[in-house]
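Protocol step 4 of 6: record predicted structures for both targets in the notebook before any analysis. Target 1:
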Amino acid sequence: MIPSFIGKEHLLQAIQQINCEGVPPQRRSHDYCLVYDSRHYPPKYIIAIAHKIATGRLLSSNEFSGGQESNGFLESRGFQVVECNCCGTVIPVRRLPRTVSSTSSKAHPSQLATHSKRCPECKLRVHQLLERIYGTCHSNYSFLWSTQAWAYKGTPIFDTLQRVLSALTAYRGYGDFIKSERLPPCDFFVPDPGFLVEFDESQHFTIPRKTALSRYPPDSNVGFSIDRWISLCDEHNAKDNDPPYRDEQRAWYDTLRDMVPPLHGLGPTIRIYGGDFPWCLLNPQNDNDVKKFEALLKGAQNLLPASSGPVSVYTVALWQDNDDHTDEHRLDMLKQLLDSISERDSGPQLILLPGGYLGTGKDRRKNADMNLVTLQTQVATTLRQLDNRTWLCLGVDGEDGKDQLAVAVSGDGIQAVGRKFHPAPGDDNLKPAPNYLSQENDFQRIFTFAGKHWYLAICYDVFGISQLELPNPGVDAILNTVHQFWPRKRRDIPASGYVYFARLGFAGASKAWGCPVFGTAVFFQQPVPERWPTAVLWKSGNKLPRQCRYEDNQLWPRSEFRVSSGAIQALVRHFVVS
């Protein structure tokens, strides 16, 4: 029996895939053919491929019948099936010339008028153009991302997903349209620099899709014009009632493709409207056509909304006579800090504390996860009293320093977690993250606050950003939780001086990613140096960071003040990020 959730969209994608890959001899049809765009395709193989696109599994020919069952299924979705003895041999796709043409392909108005907006070659051409520009592009690419809204609880998109899901459910009363546990494949995935491209044909522009888009926040991190996509929904008002909830289902999956990628460090999802242009006329071997398409992609990325406004960042650098302290001492200091900052500032505040702010204490076997409980209870409860306008970023260590995490926490609990990925010299026992974008305890290390995207770094991670030449995953700033500095260079950590950290660590990462770096640390047996920067913005061109002077820094505090709690002293600096 053929599953009813296979829609026309899946069948069209199957046609595109067969255009690229052909039909295996054993899967040809001897009696009937699906005819689409003057080409013949074997009905059962089309359905099998469509099932794989929808679920990730190829539907076996033993699971359903040819003839009446397959033909009727395809006809019910608007396709033409005819008696034919050509064995379902696909007419080959016209191959593009390998030489670069001297003229660009241009569409005549008559071509725009007669061109099919569901032309399968258009999507194929977009794939070829993306490959020409970026080298590697995967089509029908599957991520192991959940389709359930609850799976994103604790992330910045959870509230939006809840609003969208409630609105789609209320639209026509269909409450059970999420049929797949994992998100169906995206149209295209470009792994470097990392973003999705969706090719939207008319069936995507429905009232349920408009309903979903209307619930997006104004600062949504998407690579297309939300207002225009809403207008296209009004213009097309497409309907696909097989199954009856198909439009709501498609709108929900499109919402996830828009919202989820930035959680995984990917760039904004770019959407291309199939009706804007006969994309099949663009030649991937023609430099002018490639430039035209590349300009379209850049234009889509420039549609990203401006951030919601300035946000205050407070860096908290500590100094202590020795490291004989407990988490209780640090929590007492935290309460003093929150009281002092809330008296001065009523806007959105991001407070950055040093690495290992909460640690193993006397139990050196305790892992970092145990300290996360404290964040979820005591710290979150305190923040909740500030109307969730204040978030904390701090370091949490465990197992005598083997576990090193940076955590963002709000009044609603933990929002993001990052594990140290770049060991310092001598970090032989460290438990590093697999890479600089990996998840930790199901949390991302990139989070959104006040309309901006922030990256959590732990101590030597800033050196890894520049030394490993890692690409910026779309963040506006780096928050670096540095551990400690002592008066004399530590023999077990070469070049651990605070000047070295400011030049090659903060400045190096700022130059590499083109964004500010905020950093804090604990200074033992010495006060925080007055000129040591807790924020660096590098704008010195090709000058090497090791040659920088403090005067080269472009980011300085608006104000600073001091807070004391027992033996712990804090220098608090206030920065504003526009």
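Target 2:
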Amino acid sequence: MGLLDGTTQQQYYQSNNHGDYQFTSLKDIINQFMVAYVGEEGIINKVSRVDVAFHAQRALQELSFDTFKSIKSQEIVLPSSGIMILPHDYVNYTRVLWSDSAGIKHPIYPTRDTQNPFQINQNEDGSYQFTELEELIWNGDFEINAWDNGTLGAYNKWWPINGWSADDAGIYPPGNHGPVGEIAIESNKLQFKHQSVAVNQYTAGNIGYAALHASQSIDTSDKSFLNLSANGEAVDSAGGAAGVLRIGIISSTLTSTTQLFYPGYTYVDTWGLNTLWPNINFGIWSGINNTFPDMFNFLQDENGNPAYLEWMVGNNTSAKSLTGIDVTNESGVEVVVISYHHFTTAENGLQNTNNIDNISVTNQGVSGTLSTGGGSSTWSNYQSNTPSENANQDYDTDIYDLNQGQRYGLDPQHAQTNGSFYIDNLRGTINFSPNMVGKTIVLDYISDSLGTDEEMVVHKFAEEAMYKWILHDVANGRIRTQQLTPRLRKEKIAAVRQAKLRLSNIKPEELTQTLRGKSKQIKH
């Protein structure tokens, strides 16, 4: 049975897998090893497929570094920053070059005379700066009134809060009964104003009022734990309706997906929470009663408590806080303030009640670390000056007499105008000299051949080396086959050496043509 497995020439030439016959997949190598070397009469009596797969991957990695051909290459136009990001499967480079308008590649040489260290911020006396806890809330002290005409405005609709059912969730009764709630910044506080009105469209005695809320978004893609604190005050209404004030943190993902918060209710972002403070929203999210604290149950603090603070008469300590709110799995969160009253009768006329101030959300764990700046002065100075190799351009001119003696003692690594680079392994970048900006940079690099399933293949010239490598490593890890290890090691070394010779791809005719140039006479 042929190895082409029925593939026709038409199928090959019309596909994108050109030249793949020269390779054998790692899966086939593992299968064939299990058949040829494992069994009662085999060199290895018994071994699990997982062990063979591990040693096969290790063999592929090691052979990729110094035996297989390096076929990985990447090209970019170098931006003004002078920085190229290392490829995602980068292990080491073989060559760094720039390509001119004729497509000719020019080698760029590494420099060891500079680097880009992390710069530590210092105080005026030279002592090290340590960062404070990172504040994530904007205008949490409400000193800035960014709303139109100095007021946050009022919402002119009303709706019942109590007694909601899944059928009438989010449906407002018709009519305009004036503002049932207003939010304003007064005396550097976020002041909530409430009233309740009688609802004529419903049964006698039904009361309509609003649960007001304000929100602000925070990006937590690079954060793990948050601290929340605020100064709040809950005030009962003039008619004795209990006031409730809450602030908490919920996942931003819940603003774009349907999520059950409370039995029979679903969450829909009707009011556009993904905006900065103080974007004030009025009313309730469609389908959920804001008087329920269940929306805060999805994130917990370090003690396992829901991620919210609450004020009401009898539990009205001004300053409250939570620490260690886990946002490890959250790309973003919403800080939400909710204010409402348990109205039982109509109380016409807006009245100042609940208020909140000094809202703070900090990134836990930042304090105590050294404060570091962006780029170092070493790197910025290197970027702003003429590179040392460009200071010797006159060696390429025809004015030999004027240049006589000027190149004596020149370091060969600087005797070129192609530019220089160095690898910044801490940041995962290649940093180039400033004369490289705007040029087409070509990076030839080595990977370990394990990045994707497609590249986990072995050239047929090195297939035997793979078998010998796996066989030696499997036997070397077992007590019963230790006596075979010396022989298998010799076979492995010989097979790898043979693979290197085969993959060197030396052709006698091409070598002869190259060597002909050695006998060419150069006349002066």
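Step 5 preliminary note on target 2. The longest helix spans residues 485-503. The longest strand covers residues 347-363.
Proceed to step 6 after PI sign-off.
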